[in-house]
Every structure is written in C-alpha cells, then in structure tokens.
Amino acid sequence: MNADHWDKQKTRTKNGQTTINFMFVVGIPCLPSASRRLNWRLSSRYQRNATGSWSLRKIRDGIPVDKEEKKYMVYFVKSDKSSVQYTDWVCAGALVSKLYIITAAACLEDVQYLYAVAGYTVLVEYENIDKDLCTKLYKRKVIYTCVPKAYEFDYANVEKWSAIDIGVAKVDSEFDFDKGDCSFRPQPIDINYDPKYQAAGVDAIVLGWGHKLIWKQPGDETRMVQKNLDYAPVSIINKNKCKDGYKEFPDLLAVIDKYMICTHGKGNLDIGGNIIATIKPDAEGCTNYENDHGGPLVTWIGGKEYLIGVASVFRVNNESKCEGPYLFTSTQCNGAFLNCVLNANDTRRADSICDLPARKRGFDMIHRYMSWAYQPYGRDVNEKMVLFPSQSFLIRKGLEVDGASAAIWQMSMDRMPSLLYRNQVAI
C-alpha cells in the first residue's frame, strides 16, 4: 500500500499546538495501551511534503526469515507509468493459486498499473525492476482485480474503507518457474474458512518488507524499507477486548465484529510454526508488530500453513511508535466473496450463493480488467488486437466478448489513449 495517511479525528488546540487523541494510518491499527493514554500529535492535518512522500509500512522488531522458504509471499511494485507517484510504496500479498493473489483492497485501488513478484525474498524497488535478474525475468503484470462493492477508498473516512479491506489480483501468466535467479519456486498457500482458527488465543505470524522500528514522519525522504523479508509472531485476542481501544470510533466496532481479526502481544510461534514459549506473555506492555499493508496473517493447521487474514489499518502515537491491538481483514469472514472470485469458472458451483443477485447474497463485487497494450512494456501475454472496418478492439483471450461482461477495450482509430480500462461491471 502507498505509505501512510491519517484520518481526521477529534482535535484540539493548546498553546498553539494541535493534538490528536487518535491517529489512523493505513496499515495495521495502533492505539494507546490501556495502561497509559498518549496524546497523538500532528502539526497539521493531512500533512505531506511537496514530493508526495508518505511514511511507509514496517514490521516492528521483525525477525529475518533467513532460509525458511515462504513460497506464497508476493509483493507488488508500481509501474513507472502509474499515476500515483509516491516516493515509498510497499504492498504485500499471498499467492493462493498460480494466477491469483489475495491482498488488501486499498493496494489494488490506489495504483493503476502493478507488477507482482513471487518467489523472491528480496524487495526490488520499481526503478530497479528491470535490473535485477529475478524481477526482470519473472515479474508478472496485474491484469484483473476484484474488490467488494461496499469498499470505498476514502482516506478521510477510515470507517468506510476499512469495512471490507480485502481484494483479489490476477496476473497475466502463471507463477510457474523454477528457482532460477529468484529465491525459490512459488507455491500457493491454502485459505482458512474455519472460524476456530481465528479465535482468541490462536498464535500466528505476520510477514512483510516494511522497516522495523518507527513510523516515518511525513516529509522524511529516507528509504526505510527492508531489503529482505521479515516476520513477527503475534497472538489473536478477544474482539471485545480489541474494541475497548476503539470506543471513539463507533462505526468501526461493527466492522471489527463482522470482518476483522485483532492481534496484540508477542505470539508463541517461530517462522516454522514451532512453539517458542510455554507461557503466553500478557498482552499489555508486550512488544508489538505490524506488517506491510495487504501482507498475510498466517497460522498452522495440521502442520500446514494457512492464510487467515490480510493487514489493514494502523495508528501511531506522538513518539512515532505503533501500539496494538492491530487489525487484519479475515479470510473466513469474507469467505463467500473470496470463493466467488477465485472459483468463478467452477462448473460445480451451480445454484451457489455466487449466482444469486447481489441483494440476496449480501455483497457485490467490482471487477476491473487492465490493458497494458499502450504501456512501455507492451500488452500482456493474453492480449491481441482485432481490427474491424471502423474501429479496433483489444480482446483478452479466454473471456466472453459479447454483452456487458465482455473484456473489450474500445478505441478510436484516429487516437490511442494512454490508459485503457474495461468499464466497471458489477456481477
């Protein structure tokens, strides 16, 4: 996700200085612990420097993954032609099939053209993507995204966009390659749909490439991303206890109940899922951890890793430090949405919830198809140009080309737009 933004909340002025009781930053939420209340300071609301730099994600006190292969880990790199030009941009995800990645909806809504990198523990920034052999040869273009229709990307109202902050991205060709110049061969992770594996007391880990210590202040041009993948152990807490820290955001409380997982305090699992402690530490005062936006929250079921959530919102105090509880968007709570997107072509799903009208199934979806045909690196592997007497169409192989659901980009013969999108279609 692009670096940090904050939500305007209750402010007051004292001795010429503006203070904020709470401050949201896009990532995992942080707020004061119950043992002490801190003032959240900000010199001016929505502060950003002239170059558009925002602070970025981090895994506080993160531990290097080292030789442990997290084959499902993916990170996104913005294209140099993306209209959003942040100096820092970190967004992670989890590979759930050879073509599909689960991440945060905000990651997919904020930047138009994205590359996805899998099988590599080294974070390569966009200006070097064609210099590093792994990313040059094995990066993939994101050609399709789907987010819940209820998702509203509005930084000024965190309670809106954090409601269902989860999405799915599809790449133009499979992540199916041997290690080569990368770290390992990519391999999908299974998705959890069972509520008992996101219950209070469950241990998990978070993973990502963000920096380890503090939230970077607006205007700070220092690059703080970690070059290599880090992880941190976390523990899931009771939602009622989690909501105690969010009483001043009443609309967010229902969101936590319906869609979220809360973590706080150090967990008891190492990178391989082995127990590292026999007594759980008390949540208050423990070391806290956070993750790149969209990055996976993972636990072990029957000795196997499962994706249980993706990183969502975070908050910082006036010392530029993050304090829990932290929120992740749950895969189980959004299981119907994920199933409908990931199994759209499954003939066995006849008469399932996915085929009901949106008002009956309780959610809608926005499908977007991106054309790379007029980008510097050319069209993706599934695109071809079909010429007609009066107009031309760009048609994506394997999709219907008639009716409202057709993946067709129409253009005039006398001019070529630099950005071509399929119209948004709610299915």
From TrEMBL:
Ribosomal protein listed as a keyword: no
PANTHER family: FI18310P1-RELATED (PTHR24276:SF98), POLYSERASE-RELATED (PTHR24276)
UniProt-listed SMART domains: Tryp_SPc
Ranges of residues in domain Peptidase S1: 59-378
GO terms for biological process, alphabetical: proteolysis
InterPro entries: Peptidase_S1 (IPR050430), Peptidase_S1_PA (IPR009003), Peptidase_S1_PA_chymotrypsin (IPR043504), Trypsin_dom (IPR001254)
Residues spanning the membrane: none
Protein name according to UniProt: Peptidase S1 domain-containing protein
GO MF annotation, one: serine-type endopeptidase activity
Top-level taxon in the UniProt lineage: Eukaryota
Gene3D superfamilies, per the entry: Trypsin-like serine proteases
Alphabetical keyword list: Disulfide bond, Hydrolase, Protease, Serine protease
Keyword Signal: no
PROSITE patterns reported for this sequence: TRYPSIN_DOM
Signal sequence coordinates: none
